[in-house]
Every structure is written in C-alpha cells, then in structure tokens.
Amino acid sequence: MTGGAQRAEVGRSTGLLSSPVMKAAAWMAGWLSCMMVMAVAGREATRELHVFQVVVMRSLLGLAMLYPLVRLSGGFGALRTSQPWLHIARNIVHYGAQFGWFMALTMIPLAQVISIEFTMPIWTAILAVSFLGERMGLWKNIAVATGIVGVAIIVRPFSGGANVGQLIALAAAVGFAMSVIMVKALTRTESTATILFWMMVIQSVLGLVPGLLVWRWPSAHGWAWILVIGFVGTYSHYCMTCALRYADATTVVPMDFLRVPLAALVGWLIYAERIDLLTVLGAALILAANLLNLKGPAPAKPT
Questions:
Q1: CA 59 to CA 205: how far, in whole Å?
Q2: pLDDT value, residue 251
Q3: Of 203, 205, 272, 280, which is the most buried if we count CB atoms within 10 A?
Q4: Average pLDDT over the chain, rounded to whole?
Q5: Weakly modelled stretches of the chain, pLDDT under 50
Q6: How far apart are CA 178 and CA 241, in angstroms?
Q7: Which residues lie below 8 Å from residue 99, measured CB to CB, with a gap of 6+?
C-alpha cells in the first residue's frame, strides 16, 4: 500500500470513529454498562428496602453525585430552564416507569424484566416519527424488526400467559419510551446537566412522601447497593442524553437491544441462570440488528 493510500485509509478510519453515529454508540456503551449494574443493584437493594424508598434515595443521592457535573457546566445559575412543564411531564412519566421497573425486578426474573422492556423501541420509533418528525428508513426498519425478533426468541411470549409482573414491566417500557422522546425534545434547547439536574429535583419531590411512609434505615449492605444505584442511575442518563445529542432516537434506542444478551450473561454469571441455544440465537439477531442500525445512508457522490 502506498503512503497516499495508507493516509487515505487512516483518514477513513478516523472519520468513521468520529462520526455522530459512532459517538452515539460510544455513549450508549456507557449506558449499557450502567444499566446492567443497576439491574443487579436494584434486585439486591429491594430484598431489604421498599421500592418507594429505593427510588427516592436514588434521586436524592443522584442529586448530590451530580454536583461535579453542575460545577463543570457553570454552576447552578447555568441550569435555568426554558421548558419547565416539559421537564415536569417527562419526570412524572419517568418516575412511574422507573417505579414499575424496580417493582418488576421483585416479581419476575432479571432476564425477563430486561427482555420485556425491549418492547420500548417499538413505542419509541412510533412516537419519534409521530412527534419529532424523525424518519424510519429501510435500514432502521430492518434493524428494529430484527431486534424485536431476537427479543421474542429469548422471551418466548407465547409459551405461557403473562403475569402481573410481566404487565408491569411492559407498562414501564411504554413509559420509558415516552421519556426518551421527551428527552430528545429537551436536548434541542437544554444542556445535559440541566436535564439531569431537573430530573433529580423533580423525582426527589415526587418520591419524598411515599418514600418516608415506608422508610427504614438500610443496613451497611443496603447502603452499599443504594450508593451504587445512585451513581449508575445518575450517569446512565448522562450517557443516554449525550447519545441522543449525536443521533436520532430511532438510531440510539435500538442500540439498547444489546442489554438483552448482556442480561442473559449477567444472569448466568451471578444468578446461575441457564443460557440455552434459543437465547444464543436471539442474542445473535440482536447484535445483527445493532450492526444494521449503525449502517447509515451512503454519502452522495460529488457531481
């Protein structure tokens, strides 16, 4: 390969890594890592504490842990918002979805909670097209369809009737999809720090009274898990919000399909849950969906 060809190849590689979609993918890797830790920490914390208490402690601790980001963003004066009602609406919906997610963790297996949650991209795509004016091109449609087939293979929804825990998890998925759409709308005018700050403030207010009604002091073991939830719960949203700045919601959310095979792996490593061939097949389809989703339209040729 000649020197010129080598430089061209390096340039293409650098351009790929610096593309908006690849930046979104990098932030989504942070989101995925945080959410897997959150799932384990949430299950462990709710063995000891009521879900209402876990949710409000997550918000209050997250507000404190957000302070370094607030300082880097210019202090509290830089967190004024021009869309208070959208923040309130988004956080009411997200609080309800988050409560349902934690509750489902206490009722059905971890892998099942995560898998059912992955009806979310269906609702997100519909809402993004309807309210944000985003477009579902060929590759995005194929990516979403392939990912949903992969999830269905893992979940096997027709093997038995849905129970209350599964229905709660499904309702949480719809709520999370609505929250993602409202976050995408907020990123048009609000900074990441502003979105996260008002999320923690509003959800702390929403959860304070229910949390106090069921309050009990955590053990040292419980505090450890709550601190983990506070940290990953806060900075997972930072990662998601940054991802949404670089790509459409219809691009970002299907990347989250990877959480299903990751949940199966975590379940196997920590809870000795069996991984069968159908799970492996579903995971392979989900990975294929993400690769298709990262494929953008071909650049226009110069005239």
A1: 9
A2: 77
A3: 203
A4: 80
A5: 8-14, 16, 298-303
A6: 14
A7: 51, 52, 55
Dist. CA 46–CA 97, nearest whole Å: 16
> How is residue 82 written in tokens?
């021009």
Q: In angstroms, what CA-CA distances link 31 with 3, 7, 46? A: 39, 33, 22
CA distances, 184 to each of 7, 98, 106, 251, 275 (Å): 37, 18, 30, 12, 35
pTM: 0.71
Rounded distance between C-alpha atoms, residue 207 and residue 59, angstroms: 8
The DSSP secondary structure of 136-153, one letter per residue, reads --HHHHHHHHHHHHHHHH
Report residue 183 as tokens: 């976050």
The whole-angstrom separation of Cα 22 and Cα 222 is: 37
Largest CA distance in the chain: 72
> At residue 275, what are phi and psi to the nearest 5 degrees?
-110, 115
Spatial CA neighbour of 136 closest among 299, 293, 12, 302: 293
Q: Looking at this protein, which amino acid is placed at residue 181?
A: I
Cβ within 8 Å of residue 71, ≥6 positions away: none
Instruction: Say how many C-beta atoms besides its own lie within 10 A of residue 149's C-beta.
Output: 15
- Taking Cα atoms as reference points, which of 106, 97, 122, 120 lies closest to residue 39? 106
What pLDDT score does 33 carry? 87
* pLDDT, tens digit (0-9, with 9 covering 90-100), for 254-270: 777 777 777 778 777 87
Residue 266: which residues within 8 A CB-CB, separation 6 or more? 36, 39, 40, 110
Please count the other Cβ atoms lying within 10 Å of the Cβ belonging to residue 145.
14
Amino acid making up residue 149: V
CA distance 48 to 71: 34
- Residue 29's identity, in one-letter code, is A
